[in-house]
Amino acid sequence: MTTTMRITGMTCGGCEASVVEALEGVDEATADHEADEAVIEGDADPLDLIAAVPGEYEVESTA
Length: 63
Description:
Residues 4-52 form the HMA domain. The chain is of the alpha+beta class. The protein has helices at 13-22, 46-52, and strands at residues 2-8, 28-32, 37-41, 58-62.
């Protein structure tokens, strides 16, 4: 299953790495600060994914 999260507040590659690191335990995760999104592969509960995102970033939606 693929989940796309719209995440604001990421401004650089370091931010992307922080988000991806926080999403450990999924099959694969990528983040893109220019697109304001993270794409997650795996069967994780979307609420768990939202809770895992560091507090300095805001999850606006998941799909």
